Structures are given as C-alpha cells and as structure tokens.
Amino acid sequence: MTITYEWGDSLYINITNRCTNNCTFCVRNNQEGISRGMNLWLEREPTVSEVLADIQARDIYKYREFVFCGYGEPMLRTYDIIEICRYLKNAYNMSIRINTNGHANLICGQDITSQLAGLVDAVSISMNAKNSKEYQELCQSDYGEKAYEAMLAFAAKCKKYIPQVVLSVVDVMPDDNIQSCREIANRIGVDFRVRHYQS
What we know:
Keywords: 4Fe-4S, Iron, Iron-sulfur, Metal-binding, S-adenosyl-L-methionine. A hairpin with a 2-residue loop joins β1 (4-7) and β2. The protein has 7 helices and 9 strands. It has one domain (4-195): TIM Barrel (Alpha-Beta Barrel). By secondary structure, the protein is an alpha/beta fold. The strands form 2 sheets. Strands 1-2-5-6-7-8-9 form a 7-stranded mixed β-sheet. A two-stranded antiparallel sheet has the order 3-4.
C-alpha cells in the first residue's frame, strides 16, 4: 500500500481514494490505478499512526516539502491532516502543501481554514472551469453546482491564513477559458497556475 511517494524533491502523502468529484479528465479514469510508476489505490485508508510511521521511514531531510496528494481528495480527512501537519511542523518544520478540490468547508460543514494557520504553507486548489455550470459538467461534484462557488470561497478564506494559495486549471481548456479563470483568480487575489494534463 503506497502511503508516501517521491516526486522531485517533494514527499507526497496519499491518505484516501475517496473524492467529492468524479472529474471526466481524472487520471484515475484513464489508467488502471497507476501514477508515476506506482499503484496509488489504497487497500484501506491508513491511520494517522501509519501515515506518520511511513513518513518517518523516509530520509526526510532530502525533501523540500510535504504534499498531501494522492488518488483522492485529502480534505475528506481534514482533521487527520491537521493532526499530521501539527506533528510534521513540530518534528521537521518543513513546508507543507495540500493539493485539493477546495471542498473542505462543504465536507466539514463549517469554515476550517483558520485551523490550517501555522500548519499549511501552500494550498493548490483545482479550479478547472470558469463557472459553476461548466465545473459541474467537467467535475461532476457530489455537491452539484454549489461546489464551484464554495471552492472559490474556500480559496478566498485560505488567503487569510495560508501564505500561498493557488487556483489551477488543466491545459486542455481553450485559451479564452483559461484567461477567464486567470481573471477570477486575480479578482480573488490568489495565484494562478496552468497544469499540464497527464493522460
């Protein structure tokens, strides 16, 4: 079971295969559970203790950052992430990033962004569309069209507590849609990135 894996100078943490989206472009739909030469499908969700043990088995100081990202939406385990981050900050004081769809406040039923203060250094949020209708068509969220505005609101709230907040899109979008998304990110006051699509 792959709980942690390396990519560049980052250590990635894979804690769930559940997701609140079913994106049409998701690599999980295009490959048999293989990413970067690894099978990221979990037999079950690892406990916090198992996650920490897997991290501690690594040569931590060769990494630049920890990244919560795997074959699922990590914020479905928001409170476990907070617990893990608290330990990692105390033990290693390294940068921590979360790659997310931005549904954490919907998942938790409350605004949890203040609980990430001092623990998370960067959050990368998959924006993927210029409006709620197109987002739902593409991402097929469990929350329906309200997921899009909730995602943007999450990004804006994260800005108060997290040093780097990025909204991202995949480069398969038409250029004018990418520009529209960039303008929305600028209006919110967060960074914007175009991700390369890996089929």
